[in-house]
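The data layer described in this paper is built around a simple, fixed record for each protein. Such a record has a labelled line for the sequence and another for the backbone structure tokens. For reference, a complete record is included directly beneath this paragraph.
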Amino acid sequence: MKLKKITILTGLALLATSQAYSHAYVQTPKGRPLLCNERVNQGCGNISLYEPQSFEVADGSFENGSMGDQVGGAGLSASLSEQTSSRWAKTVVKSGPTTFRWHFTAQHWTVSPASFRFWITKPDWNPNMPLSRSDFEAQPLNCYNPIPNFANSMPGDSNSKFTVTCDLPDRSGYQVIAAEWNVGDTAASFLNVIDVDFTSDHPVGTVILPSGDTDNGGGTDNGGGTDNGGGTDNGGGTDNGGSTDNGGSTDNGGSADGLQEYDPNSSYPDPGTEVIYEGKVYANKWWVNPGQTPGATQWGPWEYIRDHEQTNPSDKFPVEMNTFTINEENVREGDRVILQVSKDGVMKEYDLVTVPRGMTRNQLIKQMTDKINQISSQELNGSIIAGVKNNNGEVVPNDELVSIYQVSAKPYSDTSFQYYQGNNHLKNELHLMDFKDQYDLNLNGAVNITAKIMSHASDKTNVFVTLQDSNGKAVYDKRDIQLSPMETYSLSLTVNNLQLGEYDLIVGSVLQGAPTWQKDMKIKLVDPNQDGDEATGNWVSNKVYTKGDRVEVNGVIYEAQWWTKGKNPTQSGKWGVWRVVDGQVNDQNQGGEAWESSKAYTGGQTVTYQGQEYKAKWWTRGDIPSKGSPWEKV
């Protein structure tokens, strides 16, 4: 059976882990996973909601295109691979030097700053289709001035951040940046996509919500101006937010690890100061006044960092590494779970379980737990243990989830689960019926679209339908459709207050563990009281036009000078009812139709002959205009 490799987080109900030895995410400008974690983006799936630092892929996955059209979710999240111009929040940027900042939840040995690379989408990319490697430029951005600068070491500063300046090219509107960190001590890289908008309508650093509204709760980064979440960046010169860790330098009696308890009577002027509040560690993003309690508001000055765990001297396994859980319906015959353990730059893999027919979730968790503890005892010197800690700090079996802990010496830089799903149950496809390329818009600006959507997926799938205007703004977005295999959904979509013109109607299907299926249909909303030519602004022979009306013929725009009906703009002549206001008229059509020897003309009609315009003085047929007589030059 052919297997498809995905992380254990894909398609599973993930339980939030501690900061443990998970990894990193792009903090500035905020990547798609982080904006999901902060609930700015909605409908993201569990991995980004709880683990924005865990978008880990095999080395080279982005460059070699092996993720297909699932780059948006790093091949790990079908939800994050959805792609429309109105689906995700965007950060305003501008062309030129721009600050990028990675935030580490755990350090990894890295070769050099060149291990951090960024690619931007091409100018002509399609924002309404899932992202693939071909949507991005071949070469990464030009980046320089890394802070800290390093070689063959851990890249983060004392605040677990790495900053680099990159030159953004000339772009306009919505673009996506793929950010990659190639770590040196595992065969993996971390990949985030960053949704950005090159616009002058808002200050740089503004977050534009999917609704089109703006949110500045997290500060701004001017790419050389001010970043209130981490200090000041003067165009790539100095990062004052990453040079000092004020949270760990002073012990005010708050905890054994040097962190102080939050004091409601104190100010916290230095960004990055970490405090403990109600069992959690928070860091301030900018100046905090007395009384601004951590966690009080979603967009406040405090950023949740991790849970705070008091050190217990009797705890033999104090370091939590990773946690695994799964929904019952996702346990399927033929799937495999593998444990990856990294030490001194070398990663080893251990088979934990291949799911047999009829295995339940509880049985899967138990077998994984027993196998990990057996591997630890026989091959890892008992340095790790699997289970869940009870109230006494003892690691005991649990039939709903399994966590991995290691000894305080931290011999392993990383442990992770990998889940391999058999592709015999990973088909994701829709059959669309009765969709049209043109719909009537009534006098009240309302449109009704009826059609049918049939699922050809191999399992229950989540279907979304989005209607976007020509500016990429969603005027309709429905995401609560669930279809079982071969089930048909009758779509009846009604939207009010619309304008005539072109729209994108996007239908997609999300099945965890399978590539996102998506189709972008170009449709046109028209006035049912106008014929086809009139609806597009073209000249109509039987329509009455009055002064100021404009029409288009052969790419040329004409404007009526007075009342007219039936007069072809191309035959109006220099002094006729129609005047050219935009476009170039071909010489052979200038002023009138081409003269034909077999056609009769009456007085006042104009023709073009050998590039010259002539006007008939009386009835004529067969008389060559250049010979005079019934013809005179205009």
Summary: The helical segments are 32-37, 46-50, 361-379, 532-535. The two ends are 82 Å apart (CA to CA).
